[in-house]
Amino acid sequence: MPATAVDSATLLAYRQTAYRVQAPGRHAVVPAAPPPTLPFVLTIDRPSGELASLYRRFGLDCAGYVTACNPFSQPVGRWRNALRQRRLENELIRRGLVYFHGCGEHISGPWPAEPSFLVLGLSREEAAELGRRYRQNAVLFCGPDTVPQLILLR
Asked: Are strands 17-24 and 98-106 parallel, antiparallel or unpaired?
């Protein structure tokens, strides 16, 4: 594993998180297309058939899973997290990106669930750039193989 400023307990928590995809965002509705299979869960290092369906539906072959909550994994409270998420969502809307609301939820519970977005068509570099802008330790990137990879940013 590469050198990182992120402690091992936090890295383990990221790997034990269920990255849920729950509902279409503002630009995720395509006329005359079958509805996506929602909700579903992305798991690090495991391919996702549901994500493959979304790729086909939207004619895309990559995605990022990002949040603006709890910069550098330091809790900032519900109100600040909601504001940060709203800013991120507004940026996704401004850029005309197809996104889905989600929630990263640690399987054993010590970390509170974090609202997140699955953003279709986001390259690895774009996902990392968004994560850095919103002061995150890591983001997920999914390439054409639909396998979520943990991308460390610090």
From this structure: antiparallel
The per-residue pLDDT for range 39-60, each reduced to its tens digit, is 999 999 999 999 999 999 999 9
CA–CA gap between residue 107 and residue 63 (Å, rounded): 23
Tokens at 152, concatenated = 């460390």
Under 8 Å between Cβ of 70 and 88? no
Is there a contact between 138 and 13 (Cβ–Cβ < 8 Å)?
Answer: no
Q: What per-residue confidence (pLDDT) applies to 31?
A: 46
Q: How far is CA 127 from CA 47, 61, 77, 111, in A?
A: 18, 14, 24, 22
How many angstroms separate the CA atoms of 4 and 36, rounded? 36
**Residue 140 neighbours by CB distance under 10 Å:** 24
